[in-house]
Design goal:
The chain contains 19 helices and 15 strands. By secondary structure, the chain is α/β, with parallel strands linked by helices. It has 2 domains: 156 residues, no CATH class; 247 residues, TIM Barrel. An 8-stranded parallel β-barrel has the order 1-2-5-6-7-8-9-15, surrounded by 5 helices. The chain is elongated.
C-alpha cells in the first residue's frame, strides 16, 4: 500500500512539475532575477511571478516556464482545486473509465467532480490529457467562483457562432468579470487550448479580486455540529473513527428503556474520560429497543415518565454529559401526546443542568411509523431535531432502491423546516448501504453493507458504476449465482450532495450513522463539501 502510494506521488510530482508543486528555494544572489528565463516577453510575466511566489505554479524545468505550452484538463482542474483549498480524494468509485486510480490526477479530478466543479466530456470519459479549451476553462471558472448569476453578451465576438451552447453563458460571464476576453481580432477562440501564460493571467486576475481573495482566506466554519453514533465498535475503534472524521459530538448507545420507569445504564467511563481529554462532547443515546409496549408504559404513566426523567438526569450529572440523544422507534400513534410531554419534561430538567436534548425522527411520510412524533411540538421543546434521512428503502422493502436518494433527502428536510427552525435541525447521513438481489419473479432481498464493504465488492467484481443525476448517486448492477444484483452507491459524491443540502439551508449540523461505516476517503469528501459550499464570493 505504501509503495503504491509513493509511486503515485512520484508520477504526480513529475506530471505536475509543469504547473504546480513546491517552488525551489531562491538564494539571495538570485533573488533579484526572474524565476524563469523564458517569461521576460510574456504578457503574463507579473502574473506568473505572483503565482510562483504563492506556490500555485511552477516551471517545466528549473529555469523554464514554457508560457505558450497548452494546459491539460487535468492540470487546469488541479490548479483550481489548489486555489480553492480542495483536498485530493482517493475514492474507490472512479467517476470515469479513462482515469486509472494510479494516475497522478485521479484524486484531484475525483475531488472536483464530487463537489460539482467539473463534468466529464462524456458519461464515462474525462479526457484528462486533452488541452483544456478556452470555453471549458470559462465554464470551470464560473463554477469555481460561483458566478453563474453573472450575465454577459457574446454576440459581438467575431466567432460567436463557434461558442458551444453549453458554454455561452459562462463565456459571457468571464467577459463581464474581466477574467477572459477576446484577441486583437475580437475572436474568443472557444475551441483553442488555453496556454500556460493564459492560465497564469486568468488565475491571477481572479485572485486580484479582493472579495474573492478574502473569501478564500477565511477558515472553515467550525460551529456546525458534527455528530457520530457508536455502533458495532469498541471504545478504542470508535475513538479512532471520531478523530479521523473530525467529529465533535459523540453519541454512544448507553441508555435503554426498561419496564416501570427503568433505564439501563451501559456508560463506559473510559470513553467519558477520553472525550473530556480530547475536547469532545457526549450526547449519549437513549433507546427504546423498538418495544412499543414498554415505550407506552413509560411515556403514558406520569409516575414512570417522571422516574425515567429522574434517572436520565442523574446519569447526565454523574458522568458529566453534555446532552442526550433520544432515538425511539416504533412509537405508537396513540402515544403522540405522551412523547411530546416526555421531551418537554426532559428538556426542562436537562436545561437546568446545562445539557441539551436532541430527538431523532424519520421523514414524515404520513405513516403510522412517524405518527407518534409531533415534529413542531418536539422542535419547540428540544434543542435539536435529528432528521434521519435514510432507509428510503428498508431491509425488508418489497422493492429495491436507494437508501437515501436526493429527492428523498430534500423532501425530508424541506418538510421538517416547515415546522422546525433550521438552527435546530441536524441532518443525519448514512454510512451504510444495501446490496439488492432480485429474483426472477421480481421479489428482492437485501444485504446491508458498510461503505467499506460496498467498495470492496465493487473492486472484487471490477464493477463500473454510472452516475444517475435523478437520484444523486452512482448505480451499478452485476450478476452473481444467476441473480441480478443492484446497488445505489453511497460515496463521497452522493454524501457531498446531501451535505450541500444541509449547508444550503444553513442547518445546525450533520450526523452520521454510524461511525466506522465510512471508507476514509469520505471524510476528505465531506471536508471539501464544507469548504467549497461554504465559500461566498458574492
Amino acid at each position: 500500500m505504501i509503495a503504491s502510494k509513493f509511486k503515485r506521488w512520484l508520477a504526480g510530482a513529475a506530471a505536475l512539475s509543469c504547473l504546480i508543486g513546491v517552488v525551489p528555494t531562491v538564494d539571495a544572489a538570485s533573488a533579484d532575477k526572474l524565476p524563469f528565463d523564458d517569461i521576460a516577453g510574456s504578457f503574463a510575466k507579473d502574473a506568473i511571478i505572483r503565482l510562483y511566489d504563492k506556490q500555485l505554479l511552477s516551471g517545466t524545468s528549473a529555469r523554464t516556464f514554457s508560457p505558450k505550452q497548452p494546459v491539460t484538463r487535468a492540470e487546469f482542474i488541479t490548479i483550481l482545486d489548489r486555489v480553492l483549498g480542495i483536498k485530493p480524494v482517493h475514492s474507490a468509485i472512479s467517476p470515469f473509465k479513462d482515469m486509472t486510480a494510479s494516475a497522478w490526477y485521479y484524486d484531484a479530478i475525483t475531488a472536483a467532480v464530487q463537489i460539482g466543479l467539473v463534468d466529464g466530456t462524456g458519461v464515462h470519459t474525462f479526457e484528462p490529457s486533452k488541452p483544456v479549451t478556452r470555453q471549458e476553462a470559462a465554464s470551470m471558472l464560473v463554477r469555481a467562483f460561483k458566478q453563474s448569476n453573472v450575465t454577459g453578451s457574446t454576440w459581438d465576438y467575431a466567432d460567436a457562432g463557434e461558442i458551444a451552447a453549453w458554454a455561452d453563458t459562462a463565456v459571457g460571464a468571464v467577459r463581464t468579470l474581466g477574467l477572459m476576453t477576446g484577441d486583437s481580432n475580437n475572436n474568443f477562440n472557444p475551441a483553442d487550448g488555453l496556454t500556460r501564460q493564459e492560465t497564469a493571467a486568468v488565475i491571477d486576475r481572479a485572485l486580484q479580486n479582493a472579495k474573492w481573495a478574502s473569501a478564500l482566506a477565511k477558515p472553515q466554519n467550525a460551529a456546525r455540529v458534527q455528530f457520530g453514533w457508536q455502533y458495532g465498535q469498541t471504545a478504542a475503534q470508535y475513538e479512532q473513527s471520531v478523530v479521523q472524521a473530525k467529529v465533535t459530538t459523540l453519541s454512544p448507545r448507553w441508555y435503554f428503556f426498561d419496564p416501570a420507569g427503568g433505564v439501563s445504564d451501559y456508560t463506559d467511563q473510559s470513553l467519558v474520560n477520553w472525550a473530556s481529554k480530547n475536547k469532545r462532547q457526549i450526547w449519549a443515546m437513549v433507546g427504546n429497543r423498538s418495544s412499543q409496549e414498554v415505550t407506552h408504559q413509560n411515556l403514558s404513566n406520569a409516575t414512570y415518565r417522571g422516574k425515567v426523567v429522574d434517572r436520565l438526569a442523574s446519569y447526565v450529572q454523574k458522568y458529566g454529559l453534555k446532552g442526550l440523544n433520544i432515538d425511539f422507534e416504533n412509537v405508537a400513534p396513540g402515544d403522540r401526546a405522551y412523547m411530546t410531554a416526555f421531551i418537554s419534561e426532559l428538556s426542562t430538567r436537562l436545561h437546568k443542568l446545562g445539557a441539551v436534548v436532541s430527538v431523532c425522527v424519520s421523514p414524515d411520510l404520513g405513516s403510522d411509523w412517524t405518527e407518534g412524533f409531533d415534529y413542531q411540538a418536539l422542535g419547540a421543546s428540544a434543542d435539536y431535531i435529528v432528521m434521519m434521512a435514510y432507509d428510503e428503502h428498508w431491509s425488508t422493502s418489497p422493492k429495491a432502491g436507494s437508501v437515501a436518494s436526493m429527492p428523498y433527502v430534500n423532501n425530508a428536510v424541506n418538510t421538517l423546516l416547515q415546522v422546525v427552525p433550521a438552527n435546530k435541525v441536524i441532518l443525519a447521513l448514512p454510512y451504510y448501504n444495501r446490496d439488492w438481489a432480485i429474483q426472477n419473479n421480481g421479489t428482492v432481498t437485501a444485504t446491508e453493507l458498510t461503505l467499506i464493504e460496498q467498495n470492496n465488492l465493487i473492486r472484487k467484481y471490477s464493477l463500473t458504476p454510472t452516475w444517475d443525476a435523478s437520484v444523486g448517486q452512482y448505480t451499478v448492477t452485476y450478476q452473481l449465482n444467476g441473480l441480478k444484483h443492484q446497488i445505489w452507491i453511497e460515496d463521497g459524491r452522493s454524501l457531498a450532495a446531501k451535505y450541500k443540502t444541509a449547508m444550503d439551508h444553513d442547518l445546525a449540523g450533520l450526523a452520521y450513522w454510524y461511525m466506522g461505516g465510512a471508507s476514509p476517503d469520505v471524510y476528505a469528501s465531506l471536508s471539501n463539501a464544507e469548504r467549497f459550499y461554504g465559500l461566498n464570493f458574492n
